[in-house]
Amino acid sequence: MEKIGFTTTVPVETILAAGLRPVDLNNTFIASEDPNALVERAEAEGLPRTTCGWIKGLYRAAQDAGLSGIVAVTQGDCSNTQALMELWQSQGMRIIPFAFPYDRDRDLLALQMRKLMDALGTEEEASRKKFDALKGLRKKLSLLDRLTWEDGRVTGGENHRWLVSSSDFDGDPEEFEARLDGFLGEVKQRPSNLAPSVRLAYIGVPPIFTDVYELIESAGAKVVFNEVQRQFSMPFGAKDIYEQYALYTYPYDVFGRIRDIKEQVSMRGVDGIIHYCQSFCFRTIEDIILRRELKLPMLTVEGDRPGPVDARTRIRLEGFIDMVRDMKGAG
Amino acid sequence: MPLGMDLGSREVKIVEMTDGLVVGRLSYDTARFYREFGRVSGGSLSVSFDALGFPGHKNLVLTGYGRNTIRMDGAAVISEVKAHTLGAIHQTGLMDFTLLDIGGQDTKVMKVTSRRMEDFVMNDKCAASSGRYIENMARVLGMELSELSLYFQDPASLSATCAVFGESEIIHKMAEGVPQSELAAGVNLTIVKRTLPMLGRFPVGPIVFAGGVARSPAIARLLERHTGRSVITVPEPSYNGALGCALYA
């Protein structure tokens, strides 16, 4: 089966409808044997040190992935992707640009989605069928999310790994669903874990750190909300594929994200927020707005390269969890 | 007797207390501390209380960078921000303030309300505008730290806050004939400018100044001038974290 890569979440239903295997290059990069080596090789080719680690990782990950093309998100993610796309294009890769309209304009979004269908040689009806076929799987991911915050049977790290993988279902939704069924079966045997604990939200792009969830757990806190990862799982119960990608918050303005975060942190009883920013990312600017709007203690952590959490970030995380615990105790 | 230890990046500080009073304080260069008192066993570095002169000590609380990497049996560990908050409340008797701690390789700003830390920020990943930067610049200027920390008038304009690149900028200015005193004041102002965005996050109340860099009266003066807030330097800036640990013990 031919493989199509993409640079951030796109309508995966359409790739599947075209009989292609979806490959989220972010997952390929971070799950590779030595992600740091991919970043170093990209730098050796001239990508600046002061550029996002994901961009550099994606660049090299795509070269080794045996892809027949890449859907590159040129609007709704960062403009670095545009240069990345051009770099791939200059090396002979087939590029299919995709733009999420900034103002969430439904007509423009539908046009983009139909252009993607055309580019991949499929039709609306086939995408609609895939949308219907994935409904059950998306519901199971919502259940997994519920088992994280409602009764603590799923850890924050497990929640992250399953939801972040739902952008491409590891290339094969059927196999993914079978594994998910196995996991949920095992989880249901676990006792609920309702012991009092510091309840944290993780907002922002998924971490480039490999052990941040383990570190948070070892410091005595639980992540009960993974913002963007949850968005990747499209938990909206949308009526059709167009509505689904209009409700998806990540590629649009920060205010839609804030509405979603406020609703979820209130429902999930969150005590504090960790805002992860990638070094050199435009989203570090949005931190100002997030801090102003979200009335909970917030720690902003920044990651550059793949690997374990560095000593400084670790000290910040532990200090933050300690502070939130004290505030909760005193509250 | 409660013992507090702050394993900092440049110095290790130890404070011993009895009945709420400090009865002893010690400091070591961090590298020397690890060399002389550290023993590698079972894959981790452990430190002997006996060799440190506190035989059989049971009531030890640790903080600082080294707290996660070295093993001290029986020691409790608290976060830097908590240790510094406790130390500053004890040293000033204040309930509401913004605590600024500038150490060897980082800067922390904590908001303390009703004797409780409510929020904090820390600088980003480098030693820019920390003690390490001042040490390097003092060396370039051929000054003792005690002398450098006196200059605050007519600061020369410096753009590089990097502990490494700052050096070439200073040398260039020296070649241009800028007086030493203005360069020293410029170095001190650089530190202050770098902390202003962090202090701006918590814009109310007096600034309590702690950490090794708070030994500089010039930086305290410049902080006052650029924030318009009162700046209270704690009596024992370097020992603030270790004191907080001893108080927690």
Give a short synopsis of this structure.
Chain A has 331 residues and is of the alpha/beta class.
Please tell me the overall pLDDT of chain B: 89
Helical content class of chain B: 25-40%
Strand arrangement, largest sheet of chain B?
3-2-1-6-8
Number of helices of chain B: 9
**Which percent bin holds the helix content of chain A?**
40-55%
Helix and strand sequence of chain B: EEEHEEHEEEHEEEHHHHEHEH
Q: In percent terms, what proportion of residues of chain A is strand?
A: 5-15%
Q: Give the overall form of chain A.
A: globular
User: Which value, in Å, is the CA radius of gyration of chain B?
Assistant: 19 Å
Measure the end-to-end span of chain B: 9 Å
Question: Mind describing the biggest β-sheet of chain B?
Answer: 5 strands, mixed
Annotated CATH topology of the domain at 3-80 and 242-248 in chain B? Nucleotidyltransferase, domain 5
Strand order of the largest sheet of chain A: 2-1-3-4
CATH homologous superfamily descriptor of the domain at 3-80 and 242-248 in chain B: ATPase, nucleotide binding domain
* Overall pLDDT confidence of chain A: 95
Describe this structure in words.
- The complex is a heterodimer of chains A (331) and B (249).
- Chain A has helices spanning 12-17, 25-30, 35-44, 53-63, 80-90, 106-120, 124-149, 156-164, 173-189, 212-218, 227-232, 241-247, 254-267, 283-293, 311-330, and strands at 3-6, 21-24, 69-75, 95-99, 198-204, 221-226, 272-278, 298-303.
- With 331 residues, chain A is of the alpha/beta class.
- Chain A has a domain at 3-124: Rossmann fold.
- In chain A, the strands form 2 sheets. Chain A has a 4-stranded parallel beta sheet. A 4-stranded parallel beta sheet of chain A has the order 6-5-7-8, sandwiched between helices.
- In chain A, helix 3 (35-44) crosses helix 4 (53-63), helix 6 (106-120) crosses helix 12 (241-247) and helix 7 packs antiparallel against helix 8.
- The longest helix of chain A has 26 residues, at 124-149.
- With 249 residues, chain B is an alpha/beta fold.
- Helix content of chain B is 37%, strand content 26%.
- In chain B, the strands form 3 sheets. In chain B, strands 3-2-1-6-8 form a 5-stranded mixed beta sheet.
- The termini of chain B are close together.
- The A-B interface holds A 297, 302, 304, 310-312, 314-316, 318-320, 322-323, 326-327, 330 and B 65, 68-69, 78-82, 106, 116-120, 122, 124-125.
